[in-house]
Amino acid sequence: MNESLPITAVADDPLLAVKEISAGYGAIEALHGLSLQVNRGEIVALIGANGAGKSSLLMTICANPPARRGEIRYLGQEITRLATHQIARLGIAHVPEGRRVFAGMTVEENLAMGLMALANQPVLSAAEQPGVVEDLERVYHLFPRLRERARQRAGTLSGGEQQMLAIGRALMSRPRLLLLDEPSLGLAPQIMGRIFATLRAIVEEGTTIFLVEQNANQALQLADRAYVLVNGCITLSGPGQELLTSPEIRKAYLGGH
Amino acid sequence: MDIYIFGQQLVNGLVLGSTYGLIAVGYTMVYGIIGMINFAHGEIYMISAYLTAIFLALLAGFGLHSVPVVLLLVLLCTLFLTALYGWSVERIAYRPLRHSNRLAPLISAIGISLILQNYIRISQGARNQGVPPVLEGVWRIPAQAVEQQFVQITYQQSLIVITALASMALLTWVIHHTALGRACRATQQDRVMANLLGVDTDRIISVVFVMGAAMAAVAGMLVTLNYGSFDFYIGFLMGIKAFTAAVLGGIGSLPGAMLGGVVLGLAESFFAGFVNSDYKDVFAFSLLILFLIFRPSGFLGVPEVEKV
Ligand SMILES: Nc1ncnc2c1ncn2[C@@H]1O[C@H](COP(=O)(O)OP(=O)(O)O)[C@@H](O)[C@H]1O
Ligand SMILES: [Mg+2]
Known about the structure:
Helix content of chain B: over 70%
Largest interface: A-B, 30 and 21 residues
Strand order of the largest sheet of chain B: 1-4
Distance between the termini of chain A: 51 Å
CATH superfamily of chain A: P-loop containing nucleotide triphosphate hydrolases
CATH architecture of chain B: Orthogonal Bundle
Number of helices of chain B: 11
Shape of chain B: globular
Helix content of chain A: 25-40%
Bound molecules: adenosine-5'-diphosphate, magnesium ion
Radius of gyration of chain B: 20 Å
Structural class of chain A: alpha/beta
Strand order of the largest sheet of chain A: 6-7-8-3-9-10
CATH architecture of chain A: 3-Layer(aba) Sandwich
CATH class of chain A: Alpha Beta
Low-confidence stretches of chain A: 1-11, 121-125
Largest sheet of chain A: 6 strands, mixed
Strand content of chain A: 15-25%
Mean pLDDT of chain B: 91
Largest sheet of chain B: 2 strands, antiparallel
Shape of chain A: globular
Number of strands of chain B: 4
Mean pLDDT of chain A: 89
Strand content of chain B: under 5%
Number of domains of chain A: 1
Number of strands of chain A: 10
Order of helices and strands of chain B: HHHHEEEHHHHEHHH
Structural class of chain B: mainly alpha
CATH class of chain B: Mainly Alpha
Oligomer: heterodimer
Low-confidence stretches of chain B: 304-308
């Protein structure tokens, strides 16, 4: 790997530690000095209303836009000043809001784009990396629909299939940390259930997940721990089940009583 | 209609169209990836003509006379240095303006274009330059054995068409069947996403400028060998013609640029042969204007989607 990290981090170090970061666009500040951490093997959820800054946080972890203040550590090393593509090559895969599959490319080609983060010379020799065939099998095993559609253009897929493709593409880069931005957006509850079930399987295979959701109910049920984001600040955090039963959360996000 | 004139204009049109296509590829690829017309591209073509002449003279100075070897060496050297110019133009004139408004890189393009023209005018002189013929010979295709009635194709013209086809086939293959090409297409479709996937998109943009300049270098060398003469101003007309070809084909589309080149070459050639050869450039630019007004997406382009 291009920027291999000296793995000096001790085992109970968090995989990702965000410390008092601020970020925004031009004159707008979207994140106001927020901190959180994600440990190895966890599913951590971040819930918040539309416009709270959830997507901005995920994008800032990937340095697009970069943080204005504070620091982001990954595997114990500071990554705040790295470029977006360098961060991807460290094993942080981002499934962004709206999926952003390459509509003009086939499903297979989209999955191959996940290899770009892998190789030394990502534009020349990614396909020759050992183990790629096994990785592809694993993705097809998780999402059999993608195998059926392998040679179809991604633009012709349904929303659910595109979401599977975006997750599959991210998994092809063998991420240690998977960032998911509202994977349930616009999907039928049944398809959403299937995708959430897959997330559990992904974590069991050794990838840590940081999940952003407006759909608080599902996300909190799945998550080990969760944070609540309001207007660019973390207001609450705790185990998923605990937040699920917290009266404040029920009132604000679960439409509940 | 005279069948011989028709045949001859067909040949001339294909030859002309091949060179337009080679240069149009550079406009279309750069537009596809950064949404900007690289107005310095014609100057890159012009510089490759000078480089061709310089390397021809150098090789002759070394006493090298084998035609295939000379052609190959001149091609490689010209290609390499022209590509370096293309790369530098992007680094100096466009990359620093990547995040400014749309007008700034346009002004910068015109600026760098003037700089290159005047740099050549001052360093190489304003007068017309020439190269000696390298590849001589001609095929004549008579349809009937009547005196003076034949279509002629020079070896040089065949070389232009064959080399253009081969270069375009190679470029198309790279874009569609290699990891580098996939990274280019991904960057063109969604630069932010490509970047999130670990593609160094700045590097891909450089690669695209290099590929465009290399194609222009192939055209510059072939045309220089064919016509034998050039000056520091040839990039202007050729640049606008090739830009027209890219618009006809659908700017942003690679096969479109090639198709647009051939169509423009043929249209211009038939207009010159059957209507009026003095007005052929006017005719070409009228086509540009008509397409910009009535079909801005060209033959193969998708209707304009506003780039972010
Ligand atoms: N590209 C952008 N340019 C300017 N402002 C933005 C941009 N993206 C998001 N914002 C602003 O940042 C704030 C947080 O948005 P976002 O992170 O998308 O929230 P969420 O994902 O929680 O819905 C909003 O006020 C939004 O308008
Ligand atoms: Mg969002």
